């Protein structure tokens, strides 16, 4: 696939963004796993995988890559194996995510993922997953009490009008 063909293909795919873009979760997971494998082998993404990720996730993928240019992803750890991910968006607001769960309390997730179903996920969730693949996250160790405070704040924020079961959709 040369660059011209990729560009033409990407434009066609971008025009198809919207409610028609419905894919099975397994396709999402397979593509992310493929991207992870490629990055592990080459230390970078190929053009093909970048285009494939963009065609699947759309604008949030572009924005996630922009977010990753700053150190926006922090793994908040507490003891062995327990952690949540905090992604600080362009507005400076940190969003707390559960590892590999496709749910975010940001407005874009609420409107573009849940309500209009324009996109599969938001830039914060993608940034978290990409940071894991690219090993761009920072670690922060907290006490149980501090982590509990973060989780309580996240749940309180999420309960503000969201009628979505965060455990029903997973992003590997
Ligand atoms: Zn979000």
From TrEMBL:
Residues 83-133 form the SWIM-type domain. Keywords: Metal-binding, Zinc, Zinc-finger. It comes from the Eukaryota. GO terms for molecular function: zinc ion binding. The keyword Zinc-finger applies. GO terms for cellular component: Shu complex. GO terms for biological process: double-strand break repair via homologous recombination. The keyword rRNA-binding does not apply. This is Zinc finger SWIM domain-containing protein 7.
């Amino acid at each position: 696939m040369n660059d011209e063909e990729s560009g033409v293909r990407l434009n066609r795919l971008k025009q198809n963004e919207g409610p028609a873009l419905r894919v099975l979760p397994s396709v999402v997971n397979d593509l992310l796993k493929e991207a992870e494998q490629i990055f592990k082998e080459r230390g970078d993404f190929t053009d093909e995988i970048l285009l494939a990720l963009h065609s699947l996730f759309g604008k949030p993928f572009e924005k996630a890559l922009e977010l990753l240019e700053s150190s926006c992803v922090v793994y908040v750890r507490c003891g062995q194996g327990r952690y949540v991910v905090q992604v600080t968006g362009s507005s400076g607001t940190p969003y707390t995510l559960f590892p590999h769960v496709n749910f975010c309390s940001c407005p874009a997730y609420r409107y573009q993922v849940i309500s209009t179903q324009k996109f599969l996920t938001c830039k914060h969730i993608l940034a978290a997953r990409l940071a894991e693949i690219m090993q761009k996250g920072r670690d922060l160790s907290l006490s149980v009490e501090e982590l509990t405070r973060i989780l309580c704040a996240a749940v309180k924020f999420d309960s503000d009008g969201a009628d979505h079961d965060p455990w029903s959709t997973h992003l590997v």
